[in-house]
Predict the 3D structure of the following.
Amino acid sequence: MEYAIVYVEILVLCAVYALIILRSTTDDLGTNFEVRFFKMMMRVYIVMMVADGFTQLQYNDVIRAPLFWVAFAYSSYQFLLGTLSVLWLIFAEMQISDTQMSKRMVLAVVVVPLIVMFVLSFGSIRYGWYYTFDDAGHFVRGPLFPLMNAFAYIYFFATTVHAFVKLRTEKSLVRRRRLRLLGLFIVAPMIGATLQLVIGGYPFVPPSISIGFIFIFVNIQSDQINVDALTGLNNRKSMENYVSGMIENASEHAAFYLFVIDADRFKEINDSKGHVEGDRALRLIADALRATADTFKGFVSRYGGDEFVAVVEATGRSLPDAFYEQVDIQLKRISEKNALEYPLSVSAGCSRCATPLTSVSALIADADKMLYIRKSSKR
Amino acid sequence: MFSTKYTVVYVELLMVCFIFVSVMLSKVSRDLGTKNEVRAFKWMLRIFLVMMVLDSITQIHHARLIQPSLTAISLVYATYMFLIGLMSLMWLAFAEMQINERVIQDPRFIAFCAALAVLFAIPCYGTLVTGWMFSFDADGVFQRGPFFVICNALSYTGVIIATIRSLYASMRTTAPSRKRRMRMLASFMLAPLIGALLQWLIGGYPMVGPCLCIGIMFVFVSLQNDMIHLDALTGLNNRKSLDRYLEEIRPHASELKSYYLFIVDADEFKKVNDRLGHIEGDRALRRIADALRMTGDAFYGFIARFGGDEFVAVTENSYLKDPEDFVKAMSDNLKSICEKHKIEYPLTVSIGYTRIASPSMHTGKILSAADQMLYAKKKEKT
């Protein structure tokens, strides 16, 4: 009995964590659909904990109930675990591949398996496919027992494989991070499932899934903290973290350039065309800088207002001029693509860092000075 | 004597807490607060991790699965109890810094914390000699000493002080974001409180650990959420929160219950930025934010940084009869803050506003109406 109570305590802890995650999942976690599925997963998980808790309390005679109810709770738990894995697949697929799943696909990987799982789980109460209880009320594995968890884990596993396959071709840093996150979700549940198989009799699967969720949630949250909402670039804070890391390791062999980029006559756009158009201009500049940073394998962030900061390692190519050139090319391309009515241009300045004996603000101030000179010479 | 199965699941629970908190610890980034706040919070989590390990050892010992020397196991117990006190002190430091950022530079506060830590250490480790808190009988079974309960209660001192202080601060402040933060700090107390209560009611089960684990998650998530919804430079609400706030109030707007939305824009900010550099520019923005915070408090308004050198304030008409009052208060507050901080260049703002009196006005329209007035005012000035 003591055992059952601590078992249930673990489940309660997991359920409360899921509840906290559910409550703090705000609409800005992702697209509407993603948020909905994520929340649904949390709800399913909480009900799953309740079902497992009931199973344990009854099985260990803390609550006395007919065997049917023990089996019912257990079957519900199994079915919910299957449902959770299907939801996870949908949630992850939405982010891995941008295209919507076709109707056929949904039928094949969502609807049919769910029905099969439902029949097998609840049918076991009567026909003992997965498990039965012997006369003494002890749990006995049935002929299809190995299938029981396999369903869920095949789904978890498939998502991981897909995420890592996609990772090989994905270029954008933000997306790569997200893909890696989705792929790594499986680690904790896999360890949990292995422990459950080897040791058995202890609740390993529920907390291991919970660890996976916490891992995902906490990481998505901190991505949000580090990303500028308007442009999707890194924000100022993550730039400061990044640059101070670069400064620490800077030397003549590991030098880098820091660029400060400022939109030309942005105030005019903002004042004459309004904030909405101003925001659009900032997004386009961000796109151009992102493309530029990609070609130099550099880092780019929004510093605030109409100012951006980029960091590029000083290797090979004739920096900083090649960088300026590339920014102009990209800006021109994007302006044309979007048929902009006003000219969109930027001015930039840079500073070179080859020593750890400097600071982020000093580098920015230096680049800023150069930016100002270059800007005045334009007029 | 409990079964081995019980011990295993007990230790599993502690390990689950351990892993949950480790995941959070790995994501406590530098920017979750000021440097010292982050440090205190991280130490709290680290102490918690050690506590979970020590508690596991005591359980395994309790089940006679290991047979260390009595001195060794006493040390484990004593350290465990000492760490409870230390963790609660870390929480006090963390909470105090939120209430007053500079407290960490106050030698009296440091002395107070150090004294409390020594106060915990004496009974915890002294019990090895005196047996006040606990001792082991001839069979090696744990026995509570005469002062067990008192010493245990003592270790909650830090949390209790922190709770009272933050409750008091939450009552005194009018700024909604600060009020929320203070309430959050105060409600952390619930975690150890419920844990201790459960432990007392149905002893023999691990209650404090999991409850603290939940409390930590709660705090961590609120801090993260604040990071997402607040502007890093000024600590005001960011644009995301503004959009959400406007969506929230819009359906309730009517002729009776109307709102004023103000757009506050720094004058000649570009010049400050270009001539004196970004760092001075940032400082100017913080000063404006301070002035806006004061003004917002006075009229119970919602304030946010819109982006760049633009800020937004929204107030309800029941707190503000004439919008020009707000404009005047804002300029006065900014002037006095500039004098206080000896700002040498002229730092002024222009303010445009609009009235929201019907649910049909969408956000873009509201903003552009206020923007137009702002633009007109700016033109007047130049």
